[in-house]
Amino acid sequence: MVESIPRRLVFRIPGVALVGVLFGLASMSVLALAGPKLLLLTYLIPILIGVWVVRTRTVVDTDVIRVRRLFTARRIGWSELAGLRVQDRKWVRAVLADGNQVTLPCVKLRHLPVLSLLSGGRLPDPTEPPAEGPLQDEAPVPNETGATA
Hints:
149 residues; 4-stranded antiparallel beta sheet
């Protein structure tokens, strides 16, 4: 059975988070409708959270990494990427060739093997075991005939 490699992956906040936004809207209704008209602005809080949930994502394909946040978007080509940095074992940041770092929203430590696969070998897979063979500072061990293997 041949596994197909996806050409594009989207990392985003799960859509079920919008249920919390609906509960927030319902909760704000009690406050907004009970007081002065100015309290209607409290509806903006869950609405902004909902827009943040829908908009925030990282899209990775074989050519670029696209990072979208609430108000900004950025494209990072694989050639611009020097590596990845994992902070606190949960946040992944793209380290650019110029030294700047860009946080990749919704990308976690467990996604690194998939990023390595989509990078086409530009990023090493951290879960892959090291290659077998003698270490650089180890001398080859001679066999019974005195020849080195």
